[in-house]
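Exercise 7. Predict the joint structure of the components listed below.
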Amino acid sequence: MIEVTDLHKTFGRVIAVDGVSFRARDGEITGLLGPNGAGKTTTLRCLYTLMRLDRGEVRVDGIDAAVDPVAVRRRLGVLPDARGLYKRLTARENIAYFGRLHGLDEATIRARSDAAIAALDMAEFADRRAEGFSQGQRVKTAIARALVHDPTNVILDEPTNGLDVMATRAMRGFLKRLKAEGRCVLFSSHIMQEVAALCDRIVVIAKGRVVADESPEALRAQTGAANLEDAFVQLIGSEEGLAA
Amino acid sequence: MNAAVVVFLKEVRENLRDRRTVINTLVTGPLFAPLMFVLLINALVTRELEKAERPLPLPVVGAEHAPNLVEALRQQNVEIKPGPADPERAVREQDADVVLRIPPRFAEAWARGEPAEVELVYDESQREAGGSVGRLRALLEHYGERGGALRLLARGLSPNVIKPLTIAARDQSTPQSRSGNLFAMLPYFFILGGFIGGMALAIDTTAGERERQSLEPLLANPVPRWQVLVGKLGATTVFALTAVLLSILAFSLVGQLLPTEKIGMSLEIGPRFVATTLFAMLPLAVLLAALQTLVAAFAKSYREAQTYVSLLMFVPVIPTLLLSILPLKTQPWMYAVPLMSQQVVITRLLRGDLVPAPGLLASFACTALAALLACVVTARIYRSERLAISA
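Solution:
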């Protein structure tokens, strides 16, 4: 469970996040939807304590991120916007590195890596060095290493960015699987179809503020628009930054 | 396992797999500089030796005016050559190191017992020629003294009459201390070896990791940032120290090839030298690693980091230059200054002088303190938000 209350963050004179509040529940997929520059990535960075809040509160499974950021990070699996791998290590070694940083023992790391490699269909390249991986292979490895400690909460920043159609479909299946396992899944996207197809709850962000926090059906009903795209445009008040 | 150890092991493993890093830090850096140094010294020594033993070629203008003098020079291993038409020009254009000109009235003056003049034509700014000029001058003075002594004897006087003073030279230099002067630049090469050894990792683990977009995922792990930093600094330090050790070992091996004993010097690079040098260099390697990491963490990109770190390389030159230009006596305070204290310690070791234990400890303690300070400042930089954000 991830709870965000009245989150504020400014960079110099630029207000990036201006009072964002929402809640992502266990066993649900929550989508953070908004145009480019709406403050999605900054919000997520505050969640996994990479950035400090100017004001507001972040709680993960009830733990205050300002009080114990290390404990919060322990309960999160994070696929950030930046998802660089260590090119001179194999996919398996990349995963094991993060496992060790989480303090897991070698047997557990081995078992979890094998499970992730099977689940993400990585067997073919698991023991190759990451140098020269395709975009899809890189994202799969980054997800496997982010989940090596079996976290209850999973945060993904634009997980399908740069993936082809097949890889995107696989990613959606994987997110549904995480939900079925009872995890709290929170991901950001600027693509309506993706959010509509996956989410139990949609948090729409524009200009650093939450403009809607509903289920997809309720969102359509609230705005009176026939489809989600029209609802979205109506909510953020412009078509700017809507390139899918 | 402790997170810092995990980070350390991963950085070491990853960088050992990078052939360019390994070649630059563990081969080129530590081996190239001492080897260059030894080759240079070798060439210098060999040429000096050859010059001292070789017959001295001497163009003489007007040899016919002083056949006895010319004959005496010839017996002293001087190779008399016919004089050039324009001695000044020959010297300026380095056709000859020195030309001896004997004026026509030499014989007449000599016979009348007046000071007979000979001219040495040379160019003081040609350092090469210095040895030849000195040799010839000594030979001529000796010839003159002998002539003077004979004249006194002919008048029934002891030659000692014109020798009220004799100088007995008691040179206190030892073969080791003479070589110490020759090797004054050596500590800089060791320091430079450590610098180059840590450079690739300092950049790769900070600016490089950020540019490759892997720093943000790394910092999302439940590990305090200072532990990440300790692991990275540790790896950088180990590479730097390995480079220092390699350059000391390389130098002690190829140093044996130097013909130092032929010019009255000796070079003793035994286990004690290696151990003491390593002890003095240990905190310095940490200091350099922390400074390099600090500078690299400031930089916005890999390229910028490379530029800054390269500029930082000029810092260790300063004490070396100071100590070689100003002939400063070793003062106690020098042991307290990082970089300078290592310079002093290694130079004294090479000269065969004793390094006082308090001085060595002060060097270690002060450099360690500076290293700690640099680490704390770097840790502060690591805490900043800006550090992790790549774009």
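Discussion. The interface with chain A takes residues 1, 3, 6-7, 10, 13-15, 17-18, 209, 212-224, 385, 388-391 of chain B (CB under 8 Å).
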